[in-house]
Amino acid sequence: MNSNDGVLRARTMLSLILPAAIGLVAAIAQTGCVYSPAPPVWDYYDRCAAENPAFLAMAECGRQKRLAECVPHNSCSAEGTAFMEYVDSLALSVKSKKMTEAEAMRRYAEYKSGGASTCTRLGTSVQC
User: Which of 38, 48, 54, 114 has its CA nearest to residue 83?
Assistant: First the structure.
Protein backbone atom coordinates (compact mmCIF):
# COMPACT_ATOMS: atom_id res chain seq x y z
CA MET A 1 0.00 0.00 0.00
CA ASN A 2 1.53 3.32 -1.01
CA SER A 3 0.78 6.84 0.23
CA ASN A 4 -1.47 7.55 -2.78
CA ASP A 5 -3.86 4.74 -1.70
CA GLY A 6 -4.34 6.40 1.70
CA VAL A 7 -5.05 9.78 0.11
CA LEU A 8 -7.49 8.19 -2.31
CA ARG A 9 -9.34 6.42 0.53
CA ALA A 10 -9.51 9.64 2.56
CA ARG A 11 -10.95 11.51 -0.42
CA THR A 12 -13.49 8.75 -1.04
CA MET A 13 -14.59 8.80 2.60
CA LEU A 14 -14.82 12.58 2.54
CA SER A 15 -16.91 12.49 -0.65
CA LEU A 16 -19.35 10.14 1.10
CA ILE A 17 -19.48 11.88 4.50
CA LEU A 18 -19.55 15.50 3.34
CA PRO A 19 -22.89 15.36 1.47
CA ALA A 20 -24.50 13.52 4.38
CA ALA A 21 -23.23 16.13 6.85
CA ILE A 22 -24.45 18.98 4.65
CA GLY A 23 -27.85 17.30 4.38
CA LEU A 24 -28.05 16.91 8.16
CA VAL A 25 -27.16 20.56 8.73
CA ALA A 26 -29.74 21.66 6.14
CA ALA A 27 -32.45 19.50 7.75
CA ILE A 28 -31.70 20.94 11.21
CA ALA A 29 -31.72 24.49 9.85
CA GLN A 30 -35.01 23.94 8.04
CA THR A 31 -36.62 22.47 11.16
CA GLY A 32 -35.49 25.50 13.12
CA CYS A 33 -37.25 27.78 10.65
CA VAL A 34 -40.65 26.19 11.19
CA TYR A 35 -40.47 26.25 14.98
CA SER A 36 -43.25 28.27 16.51
CA PRO A 37 -43.35 28.93 20.24
CA ALA A 38 -46.37 27.95 22.28
CA PRO A 39 -49.07 30.62 22.38
CA PRO A 40 -49.30 32.69 25.56
CA VAL A 41 -51.28 31.10 28.38
CA TRP A 42 -53.99 33.73 28.01
CA ASP A 43 -54.58 33.02 24.31
CA TYR A 44 -57.70 30.94 25.09
CA TYR A 45 -59.14 33.78 27.14
CA ASP A 46 -58.38 36.41 24.51
CA ARG A 47 -60.17 34.35 21.86
CA CYS A 48 -63.16 34.03 24.17
CA ALA A 49 -63.12 37.79 24.89
CA ALA A 50 -63.42 38.40 21.15
CA GLU A 51 -66.62 36.29 21.18
CA ASN A 52 -68.05 37.79 24.38
CA PRO A 53 -66.54 40.84 26.12
CA ALA A 54 -68.26 40.14 29.47
CA PHE A 55 -65.55 39.13 31.96
CA LEU A 56 -67.44 36.23 33.57
CA ALA A 57 -68.33 34.71 30.19
CA MET A 58 -64.76 35.17 28.96
CA ALA A 59 -63.33 33.57 32.11
CA GLU A 60 -65.57 30.50 31.88
CA CYS A 61 -65.06 30.11 28.14
CA GLY A 62 -61.25 30.43 28.45
CA ARG A 63 -61.14 27.87 31.24
CA GLN A 64 -63.21 25.37 29.25
CA LYS A 65 -61.19 25.81 26.04
CA ARG A 66 -57.86 25.51 27.84
CA LEU A 67 -58.84 22.38 29.76
CA ALA A 68 -60.43 20.80 26.68
CA GLU A 69 -57.11 21.11 24.88
CA CYS A 70 -54.48 20.43 27.53
CA VAL A 71 -56.12 17.79 29.77
CA PRO A 72 -56.56 15.09 27.08
CA HIS A 73 -52.93 15.56 25.98
CA ASN A 74 -51.63 15.86 29.56
CA SER A 75 -49.98 19.12 28.51
CA CYS A 76 -51.36 21.63 31.03
CA SER A 77 -48.44 23.84 32.03
CA ALA A 78 -47.90 25.08 35.57
CA GLU A 79 -47.83 28.64 34.21
CA GLY A 80 -51.16 28.11 32.45
CA THR A 81 -52.71 26.60 35.56
CA ALA A 82 -51.53 29.53 37.70
CA PHE A 83 -52.99 31.97 35.17
CA MET A 84 -56.27 30.05 35.06
CA GLU A 85 -56.47 30.10 38.87
CA TYR A 86 -55.81 33.84 38.82
CA VAL A 87 -58.66 34.44 36.36
CA ASP A 88 -60.92 32.10 38.35
CA SER A 89 -60.15 34.14 41.47
CA LEU A 90 -61.02 37.37 39.66
CA ALA A 91 -64.28 35.78 38.47
CA LEU A 92 -65.10 34.69 42.02
CA SER A 93 -64.50 38.26 43.21
CA VAL A 94 -66.90 39.54 40.54
CA LYS A 95 -69.54 36.94 41.42
CA SER A 96 -69.34 37.84 45.11
CA LYS A 97 -69.60 41.57 44.27
CA LYS A 98 -66.13 42.33 45.69
CA MET A 99 -65.06 43.63 42.28
CA THR A 100 -66.75 44.89 39.11
CA GLU A 101 -66.31 43.21 35.75
CA ALA A 102 -64.47 46.31 34.54
CA GLU A 103 -61.99 46.07 37.44
CA ALA A 104 -61.51 42.34 36.82
CA MET A 105 -60.85 43.01 33.13
CA ARG A 106 -58.35 45.76 34.07
CA ARG A 107 -56.49 43.37 36.39
CA TYR A 108 -56.57 40.67 33.71
CA ALA A 109 -54.97 43.07 31.21
CA GLU A 110 -52.46 44.24 33.82
CA TYR A 111 -51.43 40.65 34.57
CA LYS A 112 -50.92 39.91 30.86
CA SER A 113 -48.71 42.96 30.44
CA GLY A 114 -46.51 41.87 33.34
CA GLY A 115 -47.85 44.44 35.76
CA ALA A 116 -48.23 43.89 39.45
CA SER A 117 -51.32 42.22 40.77
CA THR A 118 -52.89 42.38 44.17
CA CYS A 119 -53.48 38.64 44.17
CA THR A 120 -51.50 36.22 46.30
CA ARG A 121 -51.10 32.47 46.34
CA LEU A 122 -52.53 30.80 49.44
CA GLY A 123 -51.56 27.16 49.46
CA THR A 124 -52.82 25.71 46.20
CA SER A 125 -55.14 28.56 45.27
CA VAL A 126 -54.87 32.20 44.24
CA GLN A 127 -56.78 34.89 46.15
CA CYS A 128 -57.42 38.40 44.83
Answer: 114
State residue 44 phi and psi, 5-degree precision: -60, -45
CA distance 118 to 127: 9
Report which of 82, 80, 78 is spatially closest to residue 120, judged by C-alpha positions. 82
Residue 127 phi, psi (nearest 5): -120, 135
> Residue 49 region, left (φ>0) first, then alpha (ψ -120 to 50), else beta?
alpha
Q: How do residues 9-27 score in pLDDT, each as one tens digit?
A: 656 554 555 455 455 445 5
Compare 25 and 107 and report the one with higher pLDDT. 107
Domain boundaries along the sequence of the chain: 1-36, 43-127
Helix and strand numbers (H, E) in the chain are 5, 2
47 closest CA partner among 72, 33, 68: 68
CB 59 within 8 A of CB 88: yes
pTM reported for the whole predicted model: 0.62
DSSP of 76-94: --HHHHHHHHHHHHHHHHH
